[in-house]
Fold this protein.
Amino acid sequence: MAFIGLIVTFAGFLIAASSVGIMTGTAGRLVMVLAGIAVSLIGILGVLNPAYQKNAIWKK
Amino acid sequence: MTTKKRLIGAVALLWCVAPLTTVLAQAPAPAAAPTTQAATAAAPAAAPAKMITDADIKGIETPSATDKAKGDPSGTITGTASDIPITDPKAGLTLADLVNTVGQNVVATNFVWTLVTGFLVMFMQAGFAIVETGLARAKNANHTMMMNFMVYGVGMAAYWLIGFAIQEGGVGAVANLGGTAPLNHEVTMHLFGKDWGLFGTQGMMLGGATYDVGVMVMFLFQMVFMDTALTIVTGTAAERWRYSAFIISSFIMGAIIYPLFGNWAWGGGWLATLGASYGLGHGYADFAGSGVVHSVGGITALAMAIIIGPRIGKFRRDGTPNAIPGHDITIVLLGCFILAFGWFGFNPGSTLGAATNGNLRISSVAVNTMLAGMAASFSGMYYMWIRYGKPDASMTGNAFLAGLVAITAPSGFVNPMASVIIGVIAGVLVCLSCEFVERVLKLDDVVGAISVHGTNGIWGVIAVGLFADGRSNYAGAWNGVPGSVTGLFYGDAGQLVAQLIGVATLIGFMFTFGFVVNMIVDAVWGHRVPATVELEGLDIPEMGALGYPEFVLRTESTFPE
């Protein structure tokens, strides 16, 4: 799951960065960039961190 | 020589000097740079031109040796035409002498400004050291202080070897520093119809053509910034980080991780050119490094917090957090003051000059900086007071720092009122973020660095895209785009998009990069000390000596219930 979290996080960056090439209007780019940030946050906070928390030291 | 004559001579000299740079071809012209932390390119604002000749110069009278021998208590005869170096004694003072001296004085002013502010930034290491050590327990004081001490040397070595070349090796000539032209090669990738700058290559070990006075100024200033980013991570991972792993991790961060984003934002890389290439405002604008320095440090700290895990005893078995107070709140707040003092180098120094090219805005930058810190300390203190009944000292200090972090990127582009608003938001934001990191993410951040530097660094980057008022004028352009940086509230939505692409890069790319690097270090070397070492305290097992040998230390041997 940690690996998937990293992939999702990086995918968010790709979405945001590619907005400048895919979209021409500011509004469209803004939507894509915000979507990219959301995807990256999901990758870190929703996938990667929970994967590490499964083996947290305070659970042992 | 009479006072009247001296006055006439001085006025004549000033009258000659003002228009020289626009009139005379032999004046060293400021060269354009693709992007830098400071303004680039373009000539100073035009002044009324008046042709002068060598004959005018010859007419300037200078203080006699007799006058000088009497001393100069009023300072009126020190610093006159007689102090201008003459290249040919037979010809006497010439226009060329005068012009070259003027040019060198502009660059010298900028050199001194940038170097002195760089020295202030270097002193911030002392602030970070005592803030982090004060927030750690006494049994880890030596270890925490040593990490903060050696991160300076480790980071500098890495940056000297390779980091500086990656970050600034393709920046080109920086006008304020009168040179740096040897930093002239940027590796690019052609994508979406444009060249994307990825990293520079010139300046490894400051050899070859980069053995240059302007490059040296640039290196010193950028190096101390880089070290600031590195020391952020030590605060989060304190009290359980193996000292040897810290050295490896910090070296890689100083050599590659930090310089890469530094290049993209300040070294002519693709984020800076989003404006010129794709019409997004003035490209990613980060005046002094809310994103480049603080977010990179905070984001890497977040990666480390996940990898290394919380300290033993930080969380109960049900996942609720225990407070682990630091051992010396007095040095924590003293450290905050030292950091605030250093911030007067961090932000105003990022003009990379005090003379010409709109650099007189250093006063505005300095005032914005202090206002944001003030506003954040108030809002943070009152948040804690209202929520928990007491004005928590460590969180008030963190709020103060959060305000300074948040204003770092916008400080050169916003007005004082916006600075206060940015600071007020930062002070509350850091408190909310600390609670979120601890209670929801269940991460252990000893000093709150993720929230202070990561969260508020990102807030600062976004704030540029909102509050930049379009009134700054750093030589008429920023990142190669004419005009002033202007945010959404002043009519340029494209600037906000550019800033958000920077945020996405920090969260999506820099986090991933930092995480993978530290995950490898963890697998190969191991980040965390054994549990027995952690319970005993890291001072003796890791460093061989206690920070406070005459103290009686209380150690924890069991998990709290």
Notes: The CA atoms of residues 30 and 40 of chain A lie 15 Å apart. Residues 26-53 of chain A form the longest helix (28 residues). Chain A touches chain B through 36 residues (CB under 8 Å).
